[in-house]
């Protein structure tokens, strides 16, 4: 077969080049006109761009236009096949809230390995969709030793969000072997101090479903005691600090009495965050005195410990008595002395303790909070707590909640009050929280693992999940 030799363009006369260019331009104009006349021009170009372009941003923009035109099959195919994380993430954003998207995500996760870049993006979307079909692949990835910390965190987030929103309880979590304790301790170590209840509930379930014999528990306690002894002896445990903190966290999640007894003062916030609620509710008078002396306050752990104590009339009476003891030795006066409260309003633990008492209708606590509010600037954190405890900050409608979230005030308020508002508003709270987190559409498209995105985005998206959970017992 003979071949045709084409002349190099450099050898073509200039007039010939102009003719070639003109002919090509004319052909393109006729093709574009034909496509435009058929009404398919933009769609065809976007389809070609999505398939052939090497630029993820251009492909994502084309995908958005195709989705706006109702091309669901393109979104579904992208979710099923796309390897570029940015384009896949855009497809999942556009598909958020669709029942068919949940099925597509679960099906894709079934075929993904722990090391796949797509797995991380899909797990975040699965947490937002909360479809039970994603549970099994998420469990597999959680336990896979090849999973990176971020991927394992995303797998746990997906399982915990699905379990909480669907009311599945501990049965949604995998049973772990004794050799897999590190999975839980690592997750607990990276848990953020403002973690919502659905995350900590999930971690406690996972810790309780870790099969440990008495000899395993003894071994964990012994390792922790040895590391504590080395630390007390002045040894710097830089390499072992994560292991030490992870062991303590794991045992606290199980309510281990030895770990509760040896929990150091600087880890009291962690104890409040992780320990079972029934353990916190058994606080002794000395524990309450210690709680009120805390210099560091405001994390979810401190509020959770306080809420556990004040869940019954007897607990509120014990807290009021602890407040009396806190004031009297130093000032020789009962808390009814408003001047004393004004002088002590810089101590956050005391102001925090007044909030649940005021909410229960205690007139003394309400009077004291009014004094705190009047003694401090309106934007001050303790003034915000006082106003919230007095019911002066509106949390009962979606617009107010969104405004507080956008201002950054919502995450400064007492977490028990925010949790109550979210449970009352339910799904109506979600679009505003998502918009305040940076999601323009208001659709819940992803939930982030600790360390991903920004602190603001993670926190507000976690609150959106909390708003979608069935009502639960406190704490």
Summed up, what is this model?
This protein is mainly α and 475 residues long. It contains 27 helices and no strands. Helices cover 66% and strands 0% of the residues.
Annotation field: number of helices: 27
Largest sheet: none
Percentage of residues in DSSP E strands? under 5%
Distance between the termini: 83 Å
Structural class of the secondary structure composition? mainly alpha
Q: Could you tell me the mean pLDDT?
A: 83
- Could you tell me the number of beta strands? 0
- Taking all Cα atoms into account, the compactness measure Rg is 29 Å
Global morphology: globular
The topology string of helices and strands comes to HHHHHHHHHHHHHHHHHHHHHHHHHHH
Low-pLDDT ranges: 1-10, 35-39, 329-336
Helix content: 55-70%
Describe the overall structure.
This protein has 475 residues and is mainly α. Among the domains are: 175-275, no CATH class; 280-392; 395-475, no CATH class. It is 66% helix and 0% strand. It is built from 27 helices and no strands. Helix 7 runs parallel beside helix 9 and helix 9 (149-166) packs across helix 11 (197-208). The chain is globular and about 95 Å long. The model is unreliable at 1-10, 35-39 and 329-336 (pLDDT under 50).
